[in-house]
Structures are given as structure tokens and as C-alpha cells.
């Protein structure tokens, strides 16, 4: 369940695992820097084609460099396909986890940036577009609206991703319903008015660069101004803390919100 108003979360530095519901996967690991704070909270959203076998430990190597910049970090878990997730639970878990940040004293809800890899890139950009959802849609009416989103090799054009990950999009949505695509596909939730950064390795053979380019073109046509950063690297270079693709993200974060 959400933290009660009287318990505004940890003030002391360190890591705290916080539950926002009663399922073991509806948690986030909150990391608080022990020095000066930037005022920004970075929400990390892991990938793995939304499937059960992949967990938030995929993003853990990025945490120290973010703490080093003074950011509070929330490494988010959610229910996934093959377990208790899928449509619409995976989406609503991400939405609820981000909204739970509003109950934490160390978080400024106006300065929350979502950063996601692969399928997590989809969720990170989708979360930044939730304010555009109709009231009846999963994840609508956000409590916390991200001020920016970063997609690292993101799956951002769900309609154009058929076949990726052995049918991962169809497994997430429970088919290929146009109604579900309309509320789950970031390329259909535009313009957001939110800064979006797309980071992609030129040699990615798991989520092709075409995914980021398709979102970029659609968003620009809608009036948004996303940025695309492309350079040498494969699908996992973007989540390697020693790689230039991650250093690109670190360099941009202070100026996003």
C-alpha cells in the first residue's frame, strides 16, 4: 500500500526497499546520496521485454554514478509477463510506483526523471505521457508527472515492434488490439510537452535503432523536441556505467529539469 501521509519516508542516506502494494514485485529500491543532493530523483526502469525472468538488478550498476551526481535514485520493480504481470498490470505497477514517490520526503515530485532500458525505455517514456491518457485508461491521472524521460535503446514504437523479442509486444498487450496500442504505445501519446532523450547504440541487434528513429520522427511531427544520441555500442552498452553511451546520459541529466 502507499506510505501513509504521516510516514514521509527516509531522511537518512542509504538504500531502502519500499513497497507500494502487497505483491513482492510492487517495490522500489530508494537510494539516497550521503552528500549534497541535486534535487532530482531518477527512476530507473529495467528492461527484458517485460518478461518475468528479468529484474531490477539489471539497472543496479548505474546507481553509484547517479548518486555521485547527488541524485536520489528509485530502482523500480513491476510485475511482468509470465508471472503476475502483463496487460494492464505491468503498466499500472509502473504508474503506481512512480506515484508513490509523492509520499517520500526526500523526493521533489516536480523533479522526477524516468530512465529506462529497452522495454524499460518504453515504460519510462510512457510514464512521461500518462497525463495524456483518457481517464479510464491504465495509469491515467498521474500524481507524479516526470519532468523528463530518457530511453536507452527503448521499444518506443509498439505497433512497429511486432516480432521483436519473439512476440514480446503481443505478449505484453495480450494480442495486438488497436485500443490497447492507443494507450500503451508512446508513439501514439504525443505531443507530451516533456523533454525526451533517446540513446541508442548504432550496433544494437536486439532493439534496432529504427525504434528510436520512428519515435523521433513521430514526436517531431507532433511538435515535441526529443533528442536522439547515437554512437558506437550494442544493446547493453547504454547500461554499462563505463561506456560513453551512459556518460552521455550523465552529462545531460543536470539540465533536463
Structure description:
By secondary structure, this protein is α/β, with parallel strands linked by helices. The chain contains 7 helices and 8 strands, in the order βββαβαβαβααβαβα. It has one domain: Rossmann fold (3-Layer(aba) Sandwich). 25% of the residues lie in helices and 17% in strands. It has an 8-stranded mixed sheet, sandwiched between helices. The N terminus is likely disordered.
The biggest beta sheet reads: 8 strands, mixed
* Global geometry: globular
What integer is the average pLDDT? 94
Helix content: 10-25%
What number of domains?
1
CATH topology title: Rossmann fold
Q: What is the CATH class name?
A: Alpha Beta
Q: Which structural category do the helix and sheet elements fall into? A: alpha/beta
Low-pLDDT runs of 5+ residues are 1-8
**Would you count the extended β strands for me?**
8
Tell me the strand order in the biggest sheet: 1-2-4-3-5-6-7-8
Count up the helices: 7
Q: What is the radius of gyration computed over CA atoms, rounded to a whole number of angstroms?
A: 17 Å
CATH superfamily: Alpha/Beta hydrolase fold, catalytic domain
